[in-house]
Design goal:
Layout: H1 10-57, H2 79-96, H3 106-125, H4 141-147, H5 157-187, H6 201-204, H7 229-262, H8 278-290, H9 296-320, H10 331-344, H11 353-368, E1 383-387, E2 394-396, E3 405-409, H12 421-428, H13 433-441, H14 447-451, H15 455-471, H16 478-503, H17 508-516, H18 523-535, H19 542-561, H20 567-575, H21 582-592
Parallel strand pairs: 1-3
Antiparallel strand pairs: 2-3
Amino acid sequence: MRRLSNKPTSGATKLLSSIIYSVTIILLVTLSINTKADSNDDLHILLDRHWQQAEKEKVFFRTDPDAWKPNGKLADFSTEGMARRQAFNAQMLKDLSSIDTKQLSEQNLMSYRLFKYEREFEDKYYQYQDKYFPVNFLSGWHTYFAEAPANMAFLNSQDYDNFLVSLEDYPRFNQENIDLMKQGLKAGFVHACESFKNYEQSIQQHIVSRAEDSALFEPFTRFPSTFTSQQKETYSAKAKQLINAHVVPSYQEMFDFFTQQYMPNCRQQAGISSVEGGADYYAYAIEYYTTTTLSAQQIHDLGLAEVKRIKTEMLAIIDKVGFKEGSDDSADKKLSAFLQFLANSKQFYADSPQDVLEKTAFITQKMYGKLPFFFGNLPRNTFTIKGSASRGAFYMPPPDNRTPGTYFLTSVPSQQPLYNLEALSLHEAVPGHHLQNAIAMELDLPEFRRTLNHSAFSEGWGLYSERLGKEAGFYEDPYSDFGRLGYEMWRAVRLVVDTGIHAFGWSREQAIDYLAERTALTDKAVQDQIDRYISWPGQALSYKIGELKIRELRERVEKKQGSKFDIRVFHDAIIGNGSLPLAVLEEVIEEKFEL
């Protein structure tokens, strides 16, 4: 009789081992998949939590300030509010460190890197003095608040209800910003006297005796057709009451503070480095706006080199058009004479504001027709063109896709030369800021990436777009091409004067002279620009720094690909991930094109 044995045969042993091995592999793979899924899910949960908090706070770090729109209760800029956001940001960094980046998908890894970069820089923000400057030469919380409604969508009762909440909340918001400026006074971080000598006019214009004369009443002059007479009457009455009782007195309080306390204690010297701690603040500002670690000296030297190069190209055009005045003089005098010729010749100016706007519309429509030759992905949203006498040219992105973007430009003929209209329109509209912003808003990406605005990326793309116009058939008129070079020279000069003012002790007059001698800007425009740079350290550096990086990346890709280079693929890669720090942009291009 055969005894039954518990010992398996060799064949059974192999089968059992195979089964165990397979189960182990399945478990490991399953564990790996689950870990990867957990890491990606954890990141999205973290990003969603941050976005929900940002929406609650109404503060979105590093966004385009022109995109801000009052919508319900306004942001809290009290000491407590700042501390709360700082603590939340620190918690985000802590939670972020627990995510295993090795398990993230390619797109999620990009979001992780960007989010970490932003949170680390926001942590720096709380350590520096940005908060003491809620106004600059161009704008402030008071101008953004007053000018925003005219470019907002008011399509239903909820839109009006939210805006009424903003009007009612404005006194608190106003006082908290004034308090920040008071803290700046104590710390010595105040604006320069000469640059702000007439700034109170930007406040005074909103101190009106009738609510109907306030820019903030504009939405109540264009109700939706679905509103009843009773609705219109009720909303109008409430708006008048809030503007008269809440908003106008707040503007008066700001005016009194600015004229009676702030300006009597303004900064005597132009550069921020004249303030104790100002040199460190300027280094922070350079990094914030350029997203690089370049020093002030490196940027200054780069600017000098670019000025020299562009000047050579400008002189070539002067010779091309046969300009003879000053031909026997030095190159500097010849350039100066030509700039004066441009500034004073009627042929370079439109006949009326309407003529300016119509010529602008023609340029942008002409470029629209050429976009498919340069871009594979195009956005759905559009933009409008409006004249603006207060700030010159700029693009205002919409808060959402319910409204178009807006390209503002000075429509006063004497202030808007025609020879630079092509470059200006390509920069602000298409293929510049509108195209860039509209594409970003339609990307299938985490919300924070759609609203990010790195100045070097944004303004660098705008300046690159001016140059792209040559490839698209613009600047056929040599005077227009000179206008393009004039704009490029203007941005190169910024590298010199911004660093000159804030790092090397240049006076306001020295900076004005340097800019005036190299551009065709009017005397007023030159002074306004220098006052802008004085009040906004570092921001003006972003244009040329960003443009040079984009051009460098394109040259590298073209050299690598040769005849296979597709400009549409390159452009889609540049602006197809939303706004990026320049170092991250370089990594994206290097990875995509295997540089």
